[in-house]
Predict the structure.
Amino acid sequence: MSEQYHLNGSTAASIAGSIEQEVLSGALAPGELLPPVRTLAAALGVSAGTVAAAYRLAGQRGLTLSDRRRGTRVRPWRREGGGPPGAAAAPAPSDAERDLASGTPDPRLLAASGELLACLDYRPGSYGAPAIAPELAEVARVQLAADHVPAEHLGCTSGALDAMSRLLAAFLHPGDRVGVEDPGWPALIDLVGTLGLRPVPMALDDDGPLPDSLWQALAGGARAVVVTSRAQNPTGAALSEARADDLAAVLERYPGVVTIEDDHGHLVSDREVHPLSGGGRQPAGPWAFVRSAAKGCGPDLRVAVVAGDDATLHRLDTSLAAGQGWVSYLLQQLVAKAWSRAGTTGTAAATYDLRRRALVEALQRLGIACVGRSGLNVWVPVADEAAAVSGLLSAGWRVAPGRPFRLASAPGIRITTASLEPAEAPALAAAVAQLAGRAPATRY
């Protein structure tokens, strides 16, 4: 046993299990450097090949990240709870706290699943049926065409993350690099690491990833990039038409790169979509546009429609066929019903936009820098995340620290405005201003 590193085992599996236990217990901290392969092998009395295999297993389990030049480190956990799988969940907010940390939609604005079920003419699928239900394909094609997304080839997965997982696994190998937005979605960053891939940060502004940052990621060897169309988590960025043109011009130079667009903001953002894979723009390599339903329809309707080129959709279908086969036709038909009714029953997007803009404008009036162009969240740069989070908690506001969202970007906090009433925005902005050392001159 290695006393210095608290690791033990005589086989690759047992050593990897020891690493997992140390990570889950907190004995190995996020970012901590593991011993060189030969050093640990000598300490444990095993071959260097055995330790190398253990490190590969740990990487495949999402525990570590390896870099030939910098060694193997414990992967920084990006999930919003702030800890590894199995860690205790954050305590529920008390009655004195306003919970603006969850990142989730307002339950009152989700599609009424009970009503959808009552009026659904359910037609069950069968073995050998198409992976995407005809009803959902019909609705999706109409809506995607309106957003200038080619929809000749369509697939269906159990949500956006399922689509991304299958697509990345179908095209990439452990050790490959993936360009991800920074700050970005913790679940995606977790997924990249769990697949044994290496996230490459792409800086962004209100219009989406910066072209120079995308260029650097691709020039550095990224074999895939994931870009959010709108309602980016945590910054609210939305691709503008000019930015989409600029990014598409960069991608044209890299025909082997897989481009994945994440449109989880469907029905929660009224920002126009400017796809990298449509509207006169066409990636030179494999591409997929993923439109998911959970944010607009509720987490139980975890369904995503995937548009893409023929070869990419073939790989996606093959991945599905090798496992679950297809997504429940009942769920697909419920989503089709919800999406088809969205235009006649009103939209939650306008409400979310009103709530988010109320906070952005209140912060800006007090001289507080923030971003939040679309979606459910506002990102506020801060010097000290822990101090900002604890200070706001003392004032009755629970917000999310920025660390789970960041790779190389500057500190910040994420405030979820999905359920924040506009009348509450001035008081919250005043609390943020006091923490920033700029007490507001106006009393609300």
